[in-house]
Amino acid sequence: MLPLAHGRGRAFRLACAAALVAVALFAACRKGTTPGPLSATLVTPAGEKRAVIDVLGLTDAERAALKDDAPDAVWESLLKVSVQAANPEATPPAVAGRYSVTDKGVRFTPAFPFQPGRRYDVRVDLGRFRRDEPRTLTTTVALPGGPTPAAEARVMGISPAGQTVPENLLRFYVWFSAPMSRDAGLPHVTLIDERTGVVADAFLPVDGGFWNHDFTRYTLFFDPGRVKVGILPNEKMGRPLVAGHRYRLAIATTWRDAQGAPLVEPFEHRFTAGPAATSPLDLDTWQITLPAAGTRQPIVLRSPVPLDHAIALRAVGVSSAGGDSIDGEVSLDVTDTRWQLVPTEPWKAGGYSIVALETLEDPAGNRIGRAFETPIDDRRPPAAPRLTRAFRITPG
Amino acid sequence: MRVRSLGAPFVTASILAASLSGTPSARAVVTGADAGAKPSALGVLAFGPGNVLFAADPQAAAIYAFDLGSSSAAPGAADVPDLDKKLAAVLGTDAAQVTIADLAVHPATRNVYLSAMRGSGADAAPALVRLDGSGRLDVIALGSLKYTSVELPNAPVANPQARRDPRTASITDMAFDNGQLIVAGLSNEEFASKLRAVTYPFSKVDPGTSVEIFHGNHGAVETRSPVYAFVPYSIGGTKQIVAGYLCTPLVTFPMSSLTAAPGAKVRGTTIAELGSGNRPIDMIVYSRGGQDYLLMSNTSRGVMKIPTASFGAASGITEKVTQTTAGVPFETLAELKGVEHLDRVGADKVAVIAKAETGLSLRTIALP
Known about the structure:
The structure holds 2 protein chains of 2 kinds.
Chain A: H1 8-30, E1 39-43, E2 52-56, H2 60-65, H3 72-78, E3 79-83, E4 97-101, E5 105-110, E6 119-125, E7 136-142, E8 155-159, E9 164-166, E10 171-176, E11 189-193, E12 197-198, E13 217-221, H4 224-227, H5 232-237, E14 246-251, E15 267-274, E16 287-289, E17 299-302, H6 309-315, E18 316-320, E19 328-332, E20 338-343, E21 350-356, E22 374-375, E23 388-393
Parallel strand pairs in A: 9-15
Antiparallel strand pairs in A: 1-2, 2-5, 3-6, 4-5, 6-7, 8-10, 10-13, 11-12, 11-14, 14-15, 16-17, 17-20, 18-21, 19-20, 21-23
Chain B: E1 29-33, E2 45-47, E3 52-57, E4 62-67, H1 83-90, E5 98-105, E6 112-118, E7 125-131, E8 137-139, E9 146-151, E10 169-177, E11 180-187, E12 193-199, E13 213-214, E14 221-223, E15 227-235, E16 238-245, E17 249-254, E18 269-273, E19 280-288, E20 291-298, E21 303-307, E22 326-327, E23 331-333, E24 339-345, E25 349-356, E26 359-366
Antiparallel strand pairs in B: 1-9, 2-3, 3-4, 4-9, 5-6, 6-7, 7-8, 10-11, 11-12, 13-14, 15-16, 16-17, 17-18, 18-22, 19-20, 20-21, 21-23, 24-25, 25-26
């Protein structure tokens, strides 16, 4: 009975399958074929990136008796590949993968690539169904470990990058020069108050998932329970940033990049906390610098207060009077107050609108027409935020 | 220590530049095939009709509906005391290289399905693994499953270049209810959740709504906060969403508000404050002795058992809360230590993944 099948019906099916293999192999043996020595080696087939294990030395009859579509549990009783355990008494389960019969023997293709430097035990047991003699092979295979990856990634910058940030800042963005690992970021970040030392529990203790799509930008959320006024952690510990204090945000080289290498050098950003930002954004307060018709000059919008850098890049746009979006290259300056769009096509004279999404925020979460924290007054519900502002480009 | 300072040119470097166009959109991009799915990551899971398993790809802000077909795996799911080590061995690595994202129990076979990431660097790859009644862990070959997928709108999307540095919507929870998949998405930028109703079979995605809440610990102030776990649940004959927010208000709001007109103001009713410094992980509803209960696992406040009987009568917390918790009564289950993920197994049991000093274990226990 195969040890890996326990459910009754399943055990019966697997036993039948194993028995068929056994009968076939036994018959092959009876025919008098003299089997050669077995071998198991790691090879990378031509045109493939992934290493496989090829088991060679099977007789034609043995190969003929094996079926590609046998259940994995049956295959594992004939060829088992497992991660070499630190404890020799442990019997780890088989590594998942695909088994196939080749014109020379049997191939095991792992579901996930073998890891360089990791040792894998291979046990072949074609003799378990033979009645005359054992036919087994036990060996260990490993891909070369490869060199230790060199440090190449560094922190490129922080946003908001300004000298002063509001004390109710919700988040910092940290940009890296190369893709990073998905490991937790918080252990590598320290916030230091130059008066009182390390600020404990400053950041949201929820890690992972706050990367951009290519793992080059990490969002460091402050603990909202401390930022929002009146919540218990805020009342007990106060805000992580206090207006008037100077801070250092330090990032250690222990933060690993996607290759597993540390950062090239530590990073430090110095800033001062200012008064809390509690006012809603208002498009009417923005200055517009108009381009000339017939040119690809940028349209420049200047906000009196900094905008959230990442959101402003995707939540502000320009549309024509007909409602068509104006395509182009958008950027924001280092102060997060100067937004510009360089159009793909020259401007035409006519009416346009600045269009903002409702999700546009400043670094403290205040939105157009609505502060992050808004007193409830159902007698006077807030008006819908005005998210567009019209302007005209006159003929040159 | 060398101190780097920012120069102004940094901001206009290509890593920060993005193109976009002006108006919001809720276009649904639906794809499907008999094979060949290549999700970049796997996150939360939820079962749909028949053998359909919904799996979120948080990195691509997409949701896959995999047709698992039938299997000969032994029904049920055996307890696995050393789940992290055994799963890692099946994936050809060690436990430090494996992150389990979610657990879901097949309603018919009661096999447990686990979503996980193998590796954390450039070689990171998603894995879907089935645990059966014999204790066997089988890697499901995602590329061989029939599937459809839908991308969540990532407004503004009119200009394809805007996708060069798209917002990441880390999907925090999903539930299938009456032909609709409800999705809670958490942005890596805005501090808020978008809840969306996605019709299945995939055809359209509602624009979604961001439900504002009254944070009872907070005085008479409204604010935004992300949803981490939720269940659809009928209260007084009306289908509601019961949602657990960060830090940890428990909030109800009508399911119909998910399809409210864009810009419509939706405010949830905060029926409990379950403690700060915490986020919910998973949530289920079950019945016991004619009474319904909500069972919720948390990052730092244990597993909570919350009778739902008073949900309909709860008027909502509108005064400042001076205690750690407030609102509808609940019980923290001392015997369920370290529980991270959980899902219901039939009417009487629950499968839980618990963390201890020795690692992760998976077991099926009677519902409390």
